[in-house]
Amino acid sequence: MVGSERVVAKDINLDKMINPQNSKVKVYWKKNIRIVLSLLAVWFFVSFGMGILL
Predict the structure, then answer these.
(1) What's the pTM value of the predicted model, to 2 decimals?
(2) How far apart are CA 29 and CA 51, in angstroms?
(3) Distance between CA atoms of 18 and 9, rounded to whole angstroms?
(4) What is the pLDDT of residue 22?
(5) Where is the Sodium symporter small subunit domain (predicted)?
């Protein structure tokens, strides 16, 4: 195999994977960011509360 040869995966459509306009991708990231922000808020309030109590 020559170093300049490229392997192309025909089963993967990179445009669909990279395109952020895909509605499933938008829904995924919206839910993901909401979960992360919720967990950060809980972490902040618990650590802040423990800092005051202790």
Answers:
(1) 0.54
(2) 32
(3) 15
(4) 78
(5) 27-54
Distance CA 42, CA 44 (A): 5
Length of the chain counted residue by residue = 54
Residue 10 carries which DSSP code?
S
| pLDDT tens digits for range 1-52 | 555 666 555 555 656 666 656 788 899 999 999 999 999 999 999 999 888 8
Place of tokens 């895909």: 22
Which whole-number Å values give the CA distances from 26 to 31, 34, 44, in the listed order?
A: 9, 12, 27
- d(CA 45, CA 21) in angstroms, rounded, equals 35
